Amino acid sequence: MKNSKLNFMTKVAMLSVIGFLLMFIEIPIPIFPTFLKLDISDLPALIGAFIFGPVAGIVIELIKNILHGLFVGGSAFIGEFANFVAGALLASTAALIYRRKKTKANAVFGLITGVIVMSIGTCIIDYFIVFPLYETLLHFPEVAVVAMGSKINSHITSFNSFLVLSILPFNILKGIVVSVITMAVYKKVSPFIHKEAAEDQLQKAESKIS
Description:
The structure is a single chain. The chain has 210 residues and is mainly alpha-helical. The protein has one domain: Arp2/3 complex 21 kDa subunit ARPC3. It is 80% helix and 2% strand. The protein has 7 helices and 2 strands. The chain has a two-stranded antiparallel ribbon with strand order 1-2.
């Protein structure tokens, strides 16, 4: 039992650190404002959520962002909070659906649903919490955000249109990219995980006999 808990904690910690390191690899997308950059740091949380359950995915996202806030900072943990919410919504939603029936089709359905929930949820959080905090704590007003968006897309004329035409499509794109990579990577790591899980079950059975 102790070995199983230690194994779980070790893997969650390892995936959290990998997610933290992946946050440094950011790709700017020309059709979005410069502060919206594509990264795949949610990949470890998705893999962890599929393997260990939705709670693990949330914990991985939490640790990843705490590490980023402590060692990188720069946004008073506001950016980290936004990243945590987005990743936690994606990973937990996908994992909850996948756990009902662990098939490839259900994994795809879970990821699609997760992307939708994450994209909509992020817009809501940005509207009510994230950008008001940016304006209050970091003096980064919403009008400046709208101005940055309008330079790229002339249809962006208000903060609401910025959310719909910039934040929403960006998160959909990010979710799709991370989901596709997750499906490709999970196929390779799942045999190892299933083997390890079987060994854990064998150890539990042996301990009961002894």
